[in-house]
Amino acid sequence: MLICQSSPVGPLGADASDGAISALVWGRAGTLTEGQLFNQLSDEIARYFGGELTEFSVPLAPRGSAFQLRFYEALCAIPYGETRTYGDLAKTLGVTAQAIGQACGANPIPVLIPCHRVLAANGLGGYSGRGGIEAKVALLRLEGAAGLLI
Questions:
Q1: Strand partners, 23
Q2: Which end of the chain has fewer CB atoms at under 10 Å, N or C?
Q3: Which residues are catalytic (predicted)?
């Protein structure tokens, strides 16, 4: 069962491990198909896409290196409707902008870990979620950050 049948970025499912979301998947159901965690995530996703939720509280369990896990924490600290550049995050975390771009691309839980809020210094940059740049723009518009794109 999908957590979200329709959204600005298409149908969404999720995988879970040990009571936490481990991945967000596009266009199909994941391993999380029922139960309290499924209900919480479905509710939060619906409220987010409805413009009623600005911060997710569902437990997350992304996999990655120590750097990637620090990076995911930094992404979650970017407030709803705001953006940072790859360079901003690189300075904060003491790595290169290229490392930030690679970590964005490896994010297993896009939307919930908001890599769409990271932009290039002179443009959008990339987006690893299904739909690519169009999905990134849709998420930024939803959050009222699309004015930054002009």
A1: 15
A2: C
A3: 115 (nucleophile)
Report the candidate in 145, 95, 142, 105 with the shortest Cα–Cα distance to residue 125.
Answer: 105
Please give the span between the terminal C-alpha atoms of the chain, in angstroms, as a whole number.
Answer: 38
Instruction: Say which amino acid occupies 6.
Output: S
The two three-digit tokens of residue 107, written as one number: 């994010």
Count of C-beta atoms within a 10 Å radius of residue 128:
16
DSSP state of 97: H
Dihedral (Cα; 4, 23, 79, 104), 10-degree rounding = -130
Backbone angles phi, psi at 6, to 5 degrees: -140, 140
Question: What tokens appear for 35 in the block?
Answer: 């139960």
Hey, which residues are catalytic here?
115
Is 49 within the bounds of a domain? no
Measured torsion, CA atoms of residues 115, 52, 77, 99, in degrees rounded to the nearest 10? 0
Cα–Cα distances in angstroms (integers) from residue 20 to residues 35, 62, 63, 119, in the given order: 12, 9, 11, 28
Supply the range of the domain harboring residue 119.
66-149
Query: Would you state the structure tokens that stand for residue 62, as one six-digit string?
Result: 């992304």
This prediction has a pTM of 0.92
